Amino acid sequence: MSELDLIERITESAIRRDGTLLGVGDDAAVLAGAPGIVVTTDVLVEDVHFRRATTGLRDLGHKALAVNLSDLAAMGADPRAAVVGLVVPPSGLAAVDHDALRAGMEDLAATHGVTIAGGDLTSGPALVLAVTAVGVLDDPASAVTRAGAVPGDVVAVTGALGGAAAGLALLEGRAAPPDPDIGAALVAAHRRPTPRIDFGRTLRRLGAHAMLDCSDGLLLDTGRMASASGVRIEIALDAVPLAPGVARIALALGAEADLFAATGGDDYELIVAMAPADVPRARAEGVVVHPIGHVREGTPSVALTRKGDAVAAPARGGWLHHV
Amino acid sequence: MSELDLIERITESAIRRDGTLLGVGDDAAVLAGAPGIVVTTDVLVEDVHFRRATTGLRDLGHKALAVNLSDLAAMGADPRAAVVGLVVPPSGLAAVDHDALRAGMEDLAATHGVTIAGGDLTSGPALVLAVTAVGVLDDPASAVTRAGAVPGDVVAVTGALGGAAAGLALLEGRAAPPDPDIGAALVAAHRRPTPRIDFGRTLRRLGAHAMLDCSDGLLLDTGRMASASGVRIEIALDAVPLAPGVARIALALGAEADLFAATGGDDYELIVAMAPADVPRARAEGVVVHPIGHVREGTPSVALTRKGDAVAAPARGGWLHHV
Question: Is the distance from CB of A33 to CB of B136 less than 8 angstroms?
Answer without folding.
Answer: yes
